[in-house]
Records
---
Amino acid sequence: MSKHSFVHIYAGVPVEQRERRRAFRASHSAKTLLTDMLISLSVISALLSGCIVPISPSSSLTSPPAAPTSTASPSPIPTASSITTLPPIASPIPAEDTLPTIASPVAPLTITILYNNVPFDTRLTTDWGFSALVEYRGQILLFDTGKDGRILLRNMQLLSIDPTRIQYVVLSHAHGDHTGGLGALLEVDPQTSVYLLPSFGDSYIRQVQQVTGVIEVTPGQPITEHILTTGEISGAIPEQALVIRTPDGLVIVTGCAHPGIVRIIERAVELTGVPVYMVLGGFHLGDKSEAEIATIIGDFRRLGVQKVAPSHCTGERAIAMFATEYGEDFLRTGVGSVINVKE
């Protein structure tokens, strides 16, 4: 195995990355005010009309159909009265030495948590939901979009992440806290391809197709040379997870793991025949007893999972138990945290 580490980095930006960010700053500063006004107006209009975010003058992207009844209630689409008030941003782009390392040559896999209800970077807005930016070997992918497109784009702005660089969007399941930001993202980046579950329904899929390409996923479907999806895993709430092949094993990113986090890990191993290096994201264990969580942690060990980074819907008790079990192989993550995997 090659030596590597998972670390949070906010300095040490390579020369080529600094030049790219300077160019982005120059183009961004002239557009910031107009972009913020357009995004705010489009979101407010959409919220008042009961939609997520309008994606073209003649159509709007509504929420996917509700999943079948289960013990976990779907997160509602935010309304104008319930939306989080965003604080003003004095400086739209933070100082260069505080930016996270993105696509560094020495860290070919970079995962940046853009949306989470677990706090980490105090500059960013914390809100219920999940979104992670994955950069690996020249490919850029967004896994889930959070609940509120304004928050998603504003957090990206604070991290100097250009949304138009995103090539693929993968939505884990049809809950608003994972799909709600898609409309706002497509307003600024209509060229990205969107990977959806067939269970999202024809109406929602057609709406997205009016703006960009849609791929209805199948089990083990490749997204890039090194990234694939589990495909739709059945259950009361169907879901897919992201699987990233690295030299030291699989890195699995989950949205909520409604079909069961252990089942998702087993599916990834079945599809690839590769052991699991790390699992991160929402594990959906908030309603589990201590004994149930202990059994699940035992399954992680049985399956050879070496590192864990639970957040979002995992639950405080489960996160604490994973931290105790995994020690220094546990990563505490939240909105704004950056995981670099060095080869």
---
Amino acid sequence: MNETNGTKQEKVKLAEKQEMIPKSKIKKSSVGAAWTFPKNPLEDAINIAKAIEEQNAGNPMKADQLVKAVGYNKSNDWRFLDLLRSANQYGLVLGSGAAATVSIESIGQDIIAPGSPKDRQEALGKAFRNVEEFKKVEEFYKGKKLPEDEFFENTLVREFSIPRDRVKIFKAVFTKNLEYLREFRGEHAQPDEKRQMEPASSGVIGTKPAGEGRQFLDSCFVMMPYGQWFDAYYKEIFIPAIKDAGMEPVRADELFSTGTVIEQIWEQIKKAKILLADLSGKNANVFYEMGLAHAQGKAVVFTAASLDDVPFDLRHLRVVIYDIKDPSWGAKLQANLSSYLKAAKEEPAKSVPQPFRFDSSAAKAAAGG
């Protein structure tokens, strides 16, 4: 035995003694090894299947066409290839690589075009568990709270052989997926509850009775003032109108993810299919968020109690004016908002000021997506 090999064996023995790691669990460098779990969260990977459904009526698409539908330019872009590979690993689509023809699998179909909200909820659970590592970690921790980051990472390395240089990505994707599935179960967790793992049941993580969970994949981010009356408008008028337009309503005060408030808002603006802004009172925060949305090339539907609250340069866009003195103003506003939101989904460019109507791939690149 030469000195080099002897030194290596001594180091392995020392590691086993100090860390109590079985030989079978000691991982070599992952450089060059295939990724056995998705690099992208399920919510992002679903965009691959959605693009095929929306752009090609669900029929198989060539990668060079699909890449543009999800906001990139070239099929050999590593970001697109990672996203496509993730969609395959979740079982949403079949076909991976820059020259692939990609088709939607049954799990993907049940997520993007389900027969009922329950079908979508169950399909999301199946997609999550289609990744063997996610399934094993879920079973290991079911009914328990995930440990703090350092101890969770150590367990992933020792018990599940996740390479040390990939464990942070695994942890981030795994926990984001848990948060996403929570939304569809109607559980809006506070930050300190997000690490709780409930037992698996009926194809979906958790056994707690589900409340009114998320129903739609597309979201509509609402930018508006807060307060007694505005909060009532949001719950009684805006939410029904948005759901009638086939989107999930999201407001900043409902967000509980990590990061600063503006980081969370920026993330929701990027994710949203359409945005809704109530300009009543010329609230500075609303105008700031609206500027971020337009800079991202996003379609925004405006509403206000007075046309004077709408900047002159934006009055040519979709604006719904409501008059609270009208006895039926609430019903009229809800109907008009639903109609305008549906129209914005069909022709989003008409809800974007001309200088910001640029290719979505440029917006994605500018945002670092």
---
Amino acid sequence: MRRFPPERIICLTEETVETLYLLGEQDRIVGVSGYAVRPPQVRREKPRVSAFTSADLPKILALDPDLVLTFSDLQAVIVADLVRAGIAVHAFNHRDVAGILAMIRTVGALVGAGAKAEVLARGYEARLAQVAAQAKGELRPRVYFEEWDEPLISGIGWVSELVRVAGGEDVFPELAAKAAAKDRIVSPEAVIAAAPEVILASWCGKKVVPSRIAGRAGWNRIPAVAQGRIVEIKSPLILQPGPAALTDGLDAILQALDRPASLAEFPNVPVPVPPLTSWPLSEKHRAVLMKVPDEGWIEGSRIDGRCLDVLLRRGWIRRVHGDGRGRSRGDGYQRTPTARAALFPDEQPTA
């Protein structure tokens, strides 16, 4: 790597993109995978340079990166081409929750943001522990996670772990440690014999069709099918080994298992920011902030995307994980005391 910290980074998978945004280091990103969708603004802010197993090498070289971040043996050919072209590469290859947390800390270290990454990782660790504690002593439904349908492929390591954290029991735990998808192929008969009470499916970006699952020969005998408990979890939430899986992916599993959402907030990484007085409160931002409650929540979809990013970065709103009834609010937002002070400068702070 020609300079530290790297000023120009290309991310060939989604999880490192989201991590850099969460750390407030997104300005270093100069190119991303075409599959990157978190946070939503990445699709309009960053050029796309790759799929998962293929990449536009001339486009990558033209962007003159200091560092390219990749994932897994499936990108080994891309990595070799980049190294031969003289590009510095860091290849992640994790398959479990511990690996996700290590990835977050490593990305932070690589960009000189180790302290912020530690806050983020510890926040996720605390939330995972809280969710797991809520499930302790409860009956655990048997869960079959289907990562692909032709052939049937069961869930990878971090998915199996998150099912356990959420209060379920993976019916194929012995396969979860297998890194390669080909080593997690199961037969329809094996799934029938496992008798899962819940079926979670995420077909690597392909739309899940529950009726096709239910219509497989003999699957009407499976409790999950008989009770209509076949649930799709979108691939960007659960099949990317990064923050998405630990937050919205875990929430989706909790919902599918009829478990209460943890009331813990998502980790909030303190990012050094200019004094409040250096940010004039525009009429547009004032109007949006007046709609955001100090308590409770407003859905993120009701806030303009560009506005949402600015308000988050200035510390005027914060993301909340659960409402007072324990329902998941992964896309919920509250106004912060900083925002209230900006809106009502003459108001006396309450004790």
---
Amino acid sequence: MITSFVNIKLFVRLLGAAYSLLIICSCQSKISADKNVDSVLVSEQLIDSLRGHTSLPSIYFDKYSTAREEFNKSHDDADALIWYGRRTAYLGLYKEAIDVFTEGVDRFPEDARMYRHRGHRLISLRRYDEAIEDFKSAVSLIDGKDDQVEPDGLPNDKNIPLSTLHGNIWYHLGLAYYLKNDLHHALQAFSNRAVTERYDDNIVSGGHWLYMINRRLGQNEAARIILEPITNDMDIIENGSYYKMCQFYKGLIEEEALQPEGFRSSSDDVLKYGLANWNLYHLQDTAKAELILDDLLENGNKFSFAYIAAEADRKRMLQTQESN
């Protein structure tokens, strides 16, 4: 009887010790997690310095500050982390944004959005292989799941979000393959229905890349079919340059209509890149294509997709010329 009582007391003591150890470990884990979060917070000095040396509108910084505050309130809020990462990227701090989304991948490994947004910013830094791996991970995570509208960080004039999570994953995967000149995989990714199924804006943005890919592959009939939905009365909200290129490809407008008007923007880069490609695969005028690409690289937005594509193409051209 005494032995049983001693055993019970011993068991209670051991149970208490185990519980205390669990609490300690839990606290240490939280401290470690908080330290990780602190490491991805952009220093206020960097933000203040950037604010004084950029042409970005002040609203970008205001929205960044709000996103940072929301993230600080709850480090376990996936939405808050995503918005903090996105607002960081909108300030041009792509490496810092990647760090934020990497924290997101660690905290929410089953959330495809973390991989999708990190992959996007890996493209911005020309880290295409890593981007492809992220988008492939995202594809696996969305398999069999319903799609969802992706809120815009920079809303259009009608404040209508035009893209979805699935569409953006496949679109950016296609782009990453395209930038590596892996045209067959790029074609497969851009051909996913989620890329072009919702709005006219999606039809022209996806159609622009699909047309160029098919032409580069010598699949002219497939390229022609891509343009079948293109008309002169489409309801385009924000992808005006992609629309113009598709109209041009189909012969609905002339080259003169592709000249940029007024203030330079990333949309101008789309027109120049599309026209350079047209000179390559349609007119076989490599010299003119090179002139247009060089102009784009000298005057364009270094982080627009068209600029990045022009940069990759021009690099391959130079390598080919050197090898010959």
